[in-house]
Amino acid sequence: MRHPCFPVIRLLICVVMSSGYLTANGADEATPQAHVSKHDIAQTFEKLTLPDCFGQHFELKELNSAPLVVVAFVGTECPLAKLYGPRLQELSIRYADQGVRFVGICSNVQDSLTEIVAYRNKAGITFPMLIDSQQELADLLQAQRTPEIVLLNKDRAVQYRGRIDDQYGVGVIREKPQQEMAALAIDALLAGKVPAVTATDAVGCVIGRHRKILPHGDITYAKHIAPIFNARCMECHRPGEIAPFSLTSFADTVGWEATIAEVVREERMPPWNANPEFGHFKNDSRLSADEKQLIREWIKNGCPEGDPADLPTPPQFVTGWRMPQPDMIIPVRDEAFTVPATGVVNYQYLRVDPKFTEDKYIVAAEARPGNPAVVHHIIAFLMLPGQTEVTLGKMLIGYAPGTSPLIFPDGAAMKVPAGTQIVFEMHYTPNGTVQTDISNIGLKFIDASKVVNEVVGLEAVNHKLRIPPGAAAHTVVSSEKFREDITLLSLTPHMHLRGKSFRYEAVFPDGKSEILLDVPNYDFNWQLRYEFAEPRLIPKGTVVTCRAEFDNSVGNRNNPDPAKEVGWGQQSWDEMMIGFFTGMKPVQPE
User: Fold this and answer.
1) Given the DSSP bridges, would you call strands 158-162 and 168-169 parallel, antiparallel or unpaired?
2) DSSP β-bridge partners for residue 105
C-alpha cells in the first residue's frame, strides 16, 4: 500500500498543503463558549508567572497598566501560526503607541524551547513569548487552536476572541485580508466602542494538551498504530518533508492526537477526493474502516505506547530522485526564485529549451521541488515544434506534495519530438519566512527500438468557460472523442480556486456508459493524479465527457472575488477546466 500522500498535496504543507490539518470551520461567527469571568482572569494575571522562551520569569501583572492586552496562542509547527507570526508582530508595532500590549503564549505540549525560540526569531517577534507548560492560560481563556487571539480590556474582560483576519485559512491564501477582525476590535475599543464582532471561530491547529486519562487498553502505538502511520503517513510526515510535523516515533505523536482524531474523523487526511463508488485506483490513499477504528480507539484510550519490541521495522525512503537515475535534469530557472514571507505569489510561467536535437522517448519523469516547504505544485507542459502559444495542454509531469514519479509500464514511452520546449507552471505558497527555490524535473530515456507502446496525453478542455458572479454551482462541460484504441493509465482533473467537483464519463461505441472518475469534492490544494489499478482499454469512437462544477459564491471561502465573472486564465484567481488523460497505444510499424 502506498503512502496516503502519494496522490498529489499542502500544505500538508504549506498552508494549502498542510491545510488538511487545520480546522475546517471558517464561519464568521464563533461557536458559543462558556463565559470566562473577568475576575478570574484578573486574579490570574495578578498572580501567575510564566517563563519566557529565554528562561526568564515574566509576571503577567506587568501587563496591568495596558488598556488592552492581546493574548496570542501560537504553535511552532502549525502552518497558519507560521504565517500569522509576522502579522502579530506588525499589529503589536501598529498599536504600541496606544499602549496595547501583545503577549505570545505557547501551550502545546509538543513544542520544545528550541522550536519556540526559532519560531520567534523567524517571525521577527519582539513581544514576550511565554511558555504555558501547564496550560493554565489556555484552559482559563478557553483557547482551542493556534493561532488564536483573546483580546482583554483594562478590567481583563474578554472583548474579542478568534482569528486575526481572513487572509489565510484552510486552503485559502488571499492577496490581502478582506476582514481584519483583530484590528477592527482593537480600534473599536480604543475609541470607547463595543466591537461589532466579538467572536469568530479560530482557524488553525488544535492545541496539544496534556492527556486527561491514563493510557490503557490493548490497542497500542507499537503494535497497531505505528504500522498504519508507517504505511499511510510517513512519506510526508518525516523530517525534511512537506508535512508540518513528524510521525516517525511515538514521541512525535504526543500533542497531535486531537488533530489526528479530527482529520481522520472528517476524512481530510489522508488526502483522497475520489468517490469510491466509481473506479479502482492504485494510489487510493483512504484509510480502511478498521484502520480508522484502531486510531479512534487508541486515542480514546489515552494513546498507550505499548512494548517497543512490537514496533515494526521503519520504512526506508529513497533520498534524492525516486525515479530511476535520470538521464537529463532540467532546472526550472537558472537563478533561485525568492518567495516572500506572506501574501500571494502569482503563478510563475517559465519557458525552457532543453535543446532536443532528436526525438526523445521518455520512460520515467519526476518533478522535484527545490524547496518543498513553499512549492504548492509544479506542472511541466510540452510546447511542440511549430506551436507559437502556450496553451497549457500537453502535460508531461506534475508535482504536488506526495506525488509519485511518473514511471511507465515496461516497453512504454512518451515520444517528445525534436525541438520541443518545456513550459513550467510554478505555484508557490509563502510559509511565514522568506524562502528561495530552484526546482527541477528529471527525465529517463529509452531507445526508440525498445518502445512497444507509445504513451500519449489527451485533454478535454473548455477555454470558453464563463462563470457568472455569485453562481454556487455553475457547470462547464468538455468532451474528447477517442480516434483510436487507447489504454488509459491515469486521469488528472484540473481547476483553480472555484473548482467544486469534476467527473469523467465515457460513452462507448455500443451506447453503454460508465463513470470513470467522480471527484465530488475537488480540492485545489491537492492536485491529484488518479492512477488506474488496472489500465483501462478505451475503444476507438468512445466519447469521454468531463463535467466540472464551479462555486463562485460567497460560500466558497477560497473565492477571490464572488462579484466577478470568471473566465479562462493562467492565474489561480482565473479559472481553468482541463480533464487530462494519460494513456498508451501500440507503436505502429513504419
Assistant:
1) unpaired
2) 73, 130
As given in the structure block, the three cell numbers for residue 63 are 501587563
Q: Are residues 296 and 247 in the same domain?
A: yes
Task: Tally DSSP H helices, then E strands, for the chain.
Answer: 10, 32
Total structural domains in the chain? Answer: 4
Which helix (H) or strand (E) element contains residue 397?
strand 395-399
Give every CB contact of residue 355 below 8 A, 6+ residues apart in sequence. Answer: none
- 276: cell is 469510491
From CA 92, how far away is CA 129, in angstroms rounded? 13
Q: Which of 491, 379, 432 is nearest to 18 (CA)?
A: 432
Tell me, what amino acid is at 185? A
DSSP secondary structure string, 178-202?
S--HHHHHHHHHHTT---S--B---
Domain-located, residue 302: yes
Mean of all residue pLDDT scores within the chain: 89
Judge if 199 and 257 occupy the same domain: no
* Enclosing domain of residue 507: 455-586
Cis preceding-peptide flag for 147 (omega within 30 of 0):
yes
Q: What is the CA radius of gyration of the chain?
A: 26
**pLDDT tens, residue by residue, 235-266:** 778 887 767 788 899 998 888 888 888 888 87
186 neighbors 94 (Cβ within 8 angstroms): no
Residue with cell 481584519: 180
Kindly state whether residues 187 and 220 are assigned to the same domain: no
b/e sequence 407-420, b meaning 16+ C-beta within 10 Å:
ebeeebbbebeebb
User: Within 10 A of 118 (CB to CB), how many other CB atoms are there?
Assistant: 13
**Can you tell me which residue has the cell 526525438?**
359
Q: Which stretches in the chain have pLDDT values below 70?
A: 1-34, 170-171, 242, 390-393, 402, 589-590
Cell numbers that stand for 544 in this block: 469521454
- Are both 280 and 257 inside the same structural domain? yes
Provide the 10 A C-beta neighbour count for residue 108.
30
The confidence score (pLDDT) of residue 392 equals 62
Domain boundary among 277, 310, 343: 310
Please report the pLDDT score of residue 1 as a whole number: 33
Per the CB < 8 A criterion, the answer to whether 482 and 538 are in contact is yes
Q: Determine phi and psi for 500, rounding to 5 degrees.
A: -120, -45
Q: Is 429 exposed, middle or buried (0-12, 13-18, 19+ CB in 10 A)?
A: buried
In whole angstroms, give the CA distance from residue 348 to residue 424: 8
Is the bond preceding residue 270 a cis peptide, omega within 30 degrees? yes
